[in-house]
């Protein structure tokens, strides 16, 4: 489902469901979306209980957030098992993001990745974001020649999960007023890891 409403979908969103949930305790309760995930991306999604917190988080996002981690399943085996991708992201009139190698030509985007597991067809990656641009991981994986599975928009040819192979597994940040370090984690879907589980060979003939 979508994080927040769009022109085509108003009700089946994480924002709408969470709003209904907090209103069960008090009809006056509200929530405020701080950031969003792509429609087919699962994992940690942050909302605030009041507008003051929301604005404080958004206005100081780069300083407050200390860690944003994702698990991704991409097509193929990467030649470099870990590395950093840096580019400047721009958007076409058709809302497709792409990388420019020229410094300053777009929004600076930095993605660190590390291969956790791999099979003949796929690789499981631990991805850390230094910046959080629109579709950043998806564009950078395409740039590597190893698009996220299920991501037809950015070049994927396979779709083993019938969804995007991307999961926001960790978000760590300092509370904008108390200064307390807060960390929220969400385990990757079992379908992601089961893709790399080798089936036991039978001894039966």
Task: List the keywords.
single chain, 205 residues, 10 strands, 18% helix
C-alpha geometry: globular
Secondary structure tally, helices: 5
Element-level helix/strand string: HEEEHHEEEEEHEEH
Overall mean confidence score, pLDDT = 90
Distance between the termini: 47 Å
Q: How is the main sheet built?
A: 8 strands, mixed
The assigned structural class equals alpha+beta
Helical coverage, percent range:
10-25%
Radius of gyration: 19 Å
Low-confidence regions:
200-205
Annotation, overall tally of beta strands: 10
Proportion of residues in β-strands: 25-35%
Describe the structure.
With 205 residues, this protein is of the alpha+beta class. It is 18% helix and 32% strand. It is built from five helices and ten strands, in the order H-E-E-E-H-H-E-E-E-E-E-H-E-E-H. Strands 2, 4, 5, 6, 7, 8, 9 and 10 form an eight-stranded mixed sheet that branches. Strands 1-3 form a two-stranded antiparallel ribbon. It starts with 13 loop residues before the first helix and ends in an 11-residue tail after the last helix.
Concise overview:
With 205 residues, the protein is α+β, with helices and mostly antiparallel strands.
Topology of this structure?
Elements: H1 14-23, E1 32-33, E2 42-43, E3 47-48, H2 51-59, H3 61-64, E4 65-75, E5 82-91, E6 97-100, E7 107-118, E8 122-129, H4 136-144, E9 166-174, E10 181-185, H5 190-194
Parallel strand pairs: 2-9
Antiparallel strand pairs: 1-3, 4-8, 4-9, 5-6, 5-7, 7-8, 9-10
